[in-house]
Amino acid sequence: MSDIINLEPRAVWHFFDLVCSIPHPSGHEQQLAEKLMEEAEKHGLSARRDAAGNVRIDRPAAPGMENLPTIILQGHMDMVPESDHEFDFINTPISPRIDGEWVTACGTTLGADNGIGVAQAMAILCDPALKCGALAGVFTFEEETGMGGAAQIDPAFLAGDYLLNCDNDSSGQFCIGCAGGARQKFTFVPEWCLPEKNACGLSITLTGLPGGHSGSCIQDDRGNAIRFLAEFLDMHPEIALCSFDAGQVDNAIPAEAVVRGASVMPPEELQKLADAFTLLIKEECTRAGNMRIIITPAALPEKVWSTKFTGQLIPALALAPDGVMAYSEEFNAVRDSSNLAIIKSSDDAVRVFTSQRSLVDAERDNVCDLVKNHFTMFGAAAEKGHIYPATTPKPASSLLALALDVRKKMGLPASVRVIHAGLESGWFSIKNPDLEILSCGPHIEEYHTPRERLSITSVQEFDRFLRLLLNSLTQQRP
Q1: Which domains does the chain have, with CATH numbers?
Q2: Local structure of residue 270 (DSSP, 8 states)
Q3: Measuring CA to CA, how many Å separate 214 from each of 210, 257, 341, 372?
Q4: Which residues are part of the catalytic machinery?
Q5: Beta carbons of 5 and 14 less than 8 angstroms apart
Q6: Whole-prediction pTM value?
Q7: Helix, strand, or coil (residue 107)
Q8: What whole-number distance in Å separates Cα of residue 132 and Cα of residue 73?
């Protein structure tokens, strides 16, 4: 246990500490799922899993409240595994710690996205003193890597009237719509040759960019390590390359990139060119103040990519569609975007992974086609991966009206927004079109990065909001 269990509300922080104690990166949620079911059964609640691995926990209505709407509290069990050091996310628990008004981790993502949503739902479900209508907790898997759990969820798991998706990052903001998205992979087959006889081996690292979520942060001018390093390399074809690697997950903006290769130009001369390039980038990119390109001597590689292959790959990366592509005035949000997310190189292939998003599914497909046409023009083989739908906003929702009224009674401000990030609500609305869905949650900053932090006071506020919302419903019972 960590010190966070002494924070208020105790039940919420107890469950969040429990979530942190069980490794749960995407694809490794089973142990956490089993623990949640075990905890539910300890409290006399029924729990089950569908064929896809999602969990549903049911809490019956209190006597006399059977006719109230059934509310589903929903979150996803997986987390994004990002760290600033070597860390085994599959076998090592997250170590949460109190840092002033925040809870953070020790050089890794905290997993508040969406561990705090899971913890909040469990605290409500397992509270014996709470008197309300029927509740359910629905916890999905692999949200961060393509929403596999939501896409495959048993429709019976969505039986209910209202669904509160506890996966929003801003306290007091209610999300009524979100972007749909798709992943794509592009594969280049390298050609090899020998390095020049008088060349020296080198390693080039671009570091210091802030990274961030490729949906909610895409408009923040944070820079992209893959693209910036490719732009530098495109200006200096005298550098022969043998590898290019960057990025860990396709829903995060890459903050660091590394290439290895050889050049007849001494590393110290190349460093001067890199420093000049870095100054230009800092003038153009508002969040690149800490960016550095570091060139160091390294062992001379036995082989390097041919000039022809480098002339295909590097311009493809430097010119790739990346960032905001269209803005929605109607919803005051980014409409279309693309993220150049990951590059992995090996002897037989260089693979580039991208993600595209849009508030309109047809536009998402158009952006995908644009990115595909770009990379295939440079000789890559294309493969489309996970696709998930957008959530169409419903401003007239009775659930939204109730939530806004509760915030007003709390004396706290509230706002309604449409976000460019993806939420599982798109799949839920397809599986159960009658379900009223609202996304909400406590305040989280810098999620999907090792700087992720969770506001302690906003967790208290969110718990109070949920309990008042349930109480408001009980006042409306027949």
Answers
A1: 3-167+423-475 (3.40.630.10), 182-388 (3.30.70.360)
A2: H
A3: 12, 16, 8, 18
A4: 78, 143
A5: yes
A6: 0.78
A7: coil
A8: 14
